[in-house]
Specification:
Radius of gyration: 14 Å
Structural class: alpha+beta
Order of helices and strands: HEEHHEEEH
Helix content: 25-40%
Shape: globular
CATH class: Alpha Beta
CATH architecture: 2-Layer Sandwich
Strand content: 15-25%
CATH superfamily: Dynein light chain 2a, cytoplasmic
Number of strands: 5
Largest sheet: 5 strands, antiparallel
CATH topology: Beta-Lactamase
Distance between the termini: 13 Å
Strand order of the largest sheet: 2-1-5-4-3
Number of domains: 1
Number of helices: 4
Length: 127
């Protein structure tokens, strides 16, 4: 598993990380840090935007994402660790970036995002 080299010590540092992610591109809709139990630790929607899902669905999404990230270790030996995953959905793109302590950086973007640049700029923040 790929880990960030610097682990924020508190929620404020995770909020700073999310702020930096938002600055990468104005098509980033949300940036959240999720813990290994699928609970939101920091971040949220970009100001002025409304989530497509309600908060109950957020909880389900976070738990499912946390589980999926933990399950992706099966092929680390053969293929190397997952650096990020993406789901290209009908309305948005969902990125997940594994972090230390089984946390996940969850980023949603508009579909028009530059897929050759944005996820790699986020990886630079995590290294």
């Amino acid at each position: 598993m790929l880990f960030v080299n610097v682990v924020p010590e508190n929620k404020d540092e995770f909020e700073i990380l999310c702020d930096k992610v938002f600055k990468i591109d104005n098509k980033i809709r949300s940036c959240r840090v999720i813990n290994n139990k699928g609970r939101l630790e920091a971040g949220g929607m970009r100001g002025g935007l409304k989530a497509f899902e309600d908060s109950k669905k957020d909880e389900m999404l976070f738990m499912e994402l946390s589980l999926r990230v933990r399950m992706r270790h099966e092929f680390d030996e053969e293929f190397g660790p997952v650096e990020f995953s993406l789901s290209y959905r009908g309305k948005i793109i969902v990125f997940s970036f594994p972090m230390r302590d089984e946390k996940v950086l969850l980023v949603t973007t508009e579909r028009q995002i530059d897929l050759g640049t944005v996820p790699f700029e986020i990886l630079k923040l995590l290294k």
